[in-house]
Amino acid sequence: MKLELRKGTEQDVEACLPVFLDSAIYERYFRGDDRLERSLRGAAGRGELYLAVTEQGEIAGAMRVVLRGFCGLYPYLSLLGVKASFRGQQVGSWLMEQLEEMARASGASRVTLMVSDFNTGAQKFYAGRGYWTLGSLPDAAKKGITELVLVKEV
After folding, report:
1. Using CA atoms, how far apart are residues 23 and 9, in angstroms rounded to an integer?
2. Residue 144, SS3 per DSSP
3. Who's near 105: CB < 8 A, 6+ residues apart?
4. What 3-state class would DSSP assign to 132?
5. How far, CA to CA in Å, does 30 sit from each of 26, 66, 73, 97?
6. pTM as predicted
7. Which backbone phi and psi does 110 adopt, to 5 degrees?
8. Which of 96, 99, 105, 113 to pair with 125, CA 20 to 30 A apart?
9. Beta sheet of 59-70, edge-to-edge order
10. Beta bridge partners of 66
């Protein structure tokens, strides 16, 4: 499948919401209110929302990247999602490749992210891409959930 990376705008937010539905992240952090929509609108407004778009114009995946978000030094991946109908088709891997290329192009030597302790599938995904655990932050984003801080040299 051929994908194009483009920056998301506030006009993309509605079409971007389904990317995160039917996911553990949505269930634990966003279900029940408009936090996801507000988060995506804010990210789009700050130029932090990136979309994986198919040749047919469908949003297959999305990520929020803060280019100097980790101590002002390294790109920080704040959110990554793949629409259910595109899961298992390497969209997440493609987005990570784009992130790592963005990091190199910006002069950064590392990429950072946090992954929730309950999200073992994502932990395996990131480990398979060469990310290692720097440490853990209990209750960082939500009480009762520990976030693992992951880093990769690019």
Report:
1. 23
2. coil
3. none
4. strand
5. 5, 20, 28, 26
6. 0.94
7. -140, 160
8. 105
9. 3-7, 49-54, 59-70, 74-82, 110-116, 146-153, 132-138
10. 76
Q: Return mean pLDDT, the chain.
A: 95
How much is the average pLDDT of 19-29? Answer: 91
Alpha carbons 47 and 153: distance in angstroms, whole number: 24
Distance between start and end Cα atoms, the chain = 25
What's the whole-number mean pLDDT along residues 114-127?
A: 96
Q: Give the 3-state secondary structure percentages of the chain, helix then strand then coil, rounded to 5.
A: 35, 35, 30
pLDDT tens string 41-76: 999 999 999 999 999 999 999 999 999 888 888 999
CA distance 70 to 114: 11
Q: Hey, what are 152's tokens?
A: 């990769």
Residue 127 one-letter amino acid: A
